[in-house]
Design a protein that fits this description.
This protein is α/β, with parallel strands linked by helices and 130 residues long. It has helices spanning 11-19, 24-31, 41-50, 54-66, 74-89, 96-108; strands spanning 7-9, 37-40, 68-70, 111-113, 127-128. Helix content is 53%, strand content 12%. Helix 1 runs parallel beside helix 3 (41-50) and helix 5 crosses helix 6. The longest helix has 16 residues, at 74-89.
Length: 130
């Protein structure tokens, strides 16, 4: 863990690694122990929907299966819409997927590994850059 915090890896980290011809699993495991990595359904769906190769898709699906998984319960969805409502009132309109990912990270006390600047708008969310 980075300090006392797990790391929720945003979709763009996986996608950027793939676009650069890198194996996202190797990139992540070179930087973090597997036990530190957290994911959620939104990240898993965003990443796996775009993978063209069945072999790569299955390898990444296997990685998602062993990462700690944040369940998107009714309480988490409530946290996401409440966060959206609060940010909207400040004129900060974020994509719903990012709000759910941020809510998952906040629930787990996780850092978010991302290059997406939308996450900078979320109060109390700690960001790591790739």
């Amino acid at each position: 863990m980075i300090g006392e915090h797990p790391v929720l890896v945003d979709s763009n980290v996986f996608i950027d690694a793939l676009r650069q011809g890198n194996d996202p699993m190797r990139v992540l495991l070179a930087r973090f122990p597997l036990t530190d990595l957290v994911t959620c359904g939104v990240v898993k769906a965003e990443v796996l929907r775009g993978v063209k190769s069945l072999k790569v898709r299955d390898r990444l699906a296997g990685l998602f299966e062993v990462m700690r998984y944040v369940q998107t319960s009714d309480r988490l969805w409530d946290a996401a819409w409440e966060l959206a409502w609060s940010l909207d009132r400040q004129g900060k309109i974020l994509p719903l997927a990012d709000l759910v990912i941020a809510s998952c990270a906040l629930r787990e006390g996780a850092l978010v590994l991302t290059s997406d600047r939308h996450f900078d708008e979320v109060p109390n969310l700690n960001i790591l850059r790739p």
